[in-house]
Specification:
The protein folds into two domains: 100 residues, Helix Hairpins, CATH 1.10.287.110; 81 residues, Monooxygenase (Up-down Bundle), CATH 1.20.1280. It is 59% helix and 0% strand. The protein is elongated and about 65 Å long. It is mainly alpha-helical and 207 residues long. The mean pLDDT is 93. Bound molecules: zinc ion. Zinc ion binds next to loops.
């Protein structure tokens, strides 16, 4: 088997002819299929491509698919199936990691819907730049003074401001896939802004 991905999902298992309920594994005979190019993380987990998702369905589907493709299961299978199971497990783990976290999920969905990625648009709203610059100065001062109550207050402030951005991200991401171009841009900029607060939180947790 080579590494190029097939374009489409087979409808029936080539081994036992059972209908495939997952794009990557036959639940009847455990034959594995490489993840097709046309299937995204939502499709891999059998979920609709949307920001709002049913978290319990996500976890259930994850457990069910990961059990069926787990490398332990293919110990006595062909080398090809063993390799495929390792690769699919890694893809599945990456998929669930992204879909579980609202900010990562919104960014992933934005790019699926043709929106700008973090490399092509690094813009951060100017008010965020001003605010984070001020907060950073306060953090550095408090760290220099070893002022722990101040650092605690700052951590709370940064967390609250980040939460406001995450709310905004949810609001914009819910408009996908048919969001207006300016909403997609605004979503990209808000996602970029969250990084600034994440970096500050990292500093504050080190303190
Ligand atoms: Zn089968």
């Amino acid at each position: 088997m080579n590494d190029t991905k097939p374009d489409t999902v087979p409808e029936k298992c080539i081994n036992c002819s059972a209908e495939l309920t997952s794009p990557v594994v036959c639940s009847g005979c455990h034959t594995l299929y490489p993840l097709p190019q046309s299937v995204d993380y939502f499709g891999l987990l059998g979920l609709p491509r949307a920001y709002d998702l049913d978290e319990s369905a996500l976890e259930k589907r994850f457990l069910s698919v990961s059990r069926h493709i787990h490398p332990d299961y293919f110990g006595s299978a062909s080398g090809e199936m063993q390799q495929l199971s390792v690769r699919l497990s890694a893809e599945l783990n990456q998929a669930v990691k992204v879909l579980r976290q609202p900010v990562l999920r919104a960014g992933y969905l934005l790019e699926l819907c043709g929106g700008p990625g973090p490399a092509s648009d690094r813009t951060v709203p100017p008010e965020v730049l001003g605010e984070t610059m001020m907060l950073r100065e306060e953090i550095e001062e408090a760290q220099a003074d070893e002022d722990h109550p101040a650092l605690q207050r700052l951590r709370k402030t940064v967390e609250e401001k980040r939460a406001v951005l995450v709310e905004r991200i949810a609001e914009l991401a819910r408009r996908l896939p048919n969001a207006a171009a300016e909403d997609k841009t605004a979503l990209r900029h808000t996602l970029n802004a969250v990084k600034y607060y994440d970096n500050m939180l990292e500093l504050l947790w080190e303190a």
